[in-house]
Amino acid sequence: MAITYQTTLPDPNNSIGNAGQNTGLEDQHVGYKSVKLSSKSQIMKNRTNSGRLITRSHGSHTWNINITYNPMTRAEFEPIYNFLLNRRGGLDPFYVSLPQYRVPQDSTFAAYALADLTRIVVDESSGVAAGATKFKIDGVLEAHVISPGDLFTITDGSDSSHTKAYRITQVETNAAGTFESAPPPAVDERIIHFVPGLAKSVTNDAQMNFHNPLIRVILSNDVQEYSLGVDGLYQFSLNLEEAQP
């Protein structure tokens, strides 16, 4: 029987077995002590002789992640370290699930999104061009709250290489005073604003992933090291950077 390998950094929700399979004992996997997420945009700034500021984007956007662990026993440490060694430094990308973005902030909407992962889709008949920073979605209910700060990814049947992660900054609804677009979204629609701009164009009805959006990353440093204390516990941290195909 073929192995379904674990491609997400092991944590309590993403276990790994001795063969590298995506099943194992969840209680052997530890969470993170701290997570640092950085949004890196390449912006060029120039000033004229009169002091006028001119800015423009001249490169891609990248999420950078720093993860620190609490001291670990060997049983807790080995699955994580061996998973990373198997990526051969920055050669092989993998995915990471960040606990603060695993589910949407609104519990009712989170349960709805989890019940059917395919029900929320892009609602733009002509698709959405690369670089766009907002678009309309449908498949939600009137009472659902999609909150600024939620993370999402997109599954587009026309482009399986679109793995970029996006963070919502504003949400337009049908309620008075909460939309700027004309016509306003319907009660089962939202217009979401997000950063960064779309890395690739998106087709109509592409699936929106609000539950457990994964960030595709590589190790920033090809040297991975740990410290072992006199108490027999392992000290470890790692730096990651987003890696699109």
Helix content: under 10%
Cα Rg: 20 Å
Total E-strand runs: 15
The separation of the N and C termini measures 29 Å
Low-confidence runs of at least 5 consecutive residues: none
How would the global form be characterised? Answer: globular
Which architecture name of the largest domain does CATH use? Beta Barrel
Neighbour order of strands in the largest sheet: 6-7-10-9-8-11
Query: What is the helix/strand order?
Result: EEEEHEHEEEEEEEEEE
Main beta-sheet strand count, sense and barrel state? 6 strands, antiparallel
Description:
The chain is built from two helices and 15 strands. The protein has 245 residues and is mostly beta strands. The chain has two domains: 26-97 and 215-242, Phosphorylase Kinase, domain 1 (2-Layer Sandwich); 100-209, Elongation Factor Tu (Ef-tu), domain 3. The strands form four sheets. A six-stranded antiparallel sheet has the order 6-7-10-9-8-11, with no helix packed on it. A five-stranded antiparallel sheet has the order 1-4-15-12-5, with no helix packed on it. A hairpin with a 5-residue loop joins strand 13 (227-228) and strand 14 (234-235). The longest helix has 12 residues, at 74-85. The radius of gyration is 20 Å and the shape is globular.
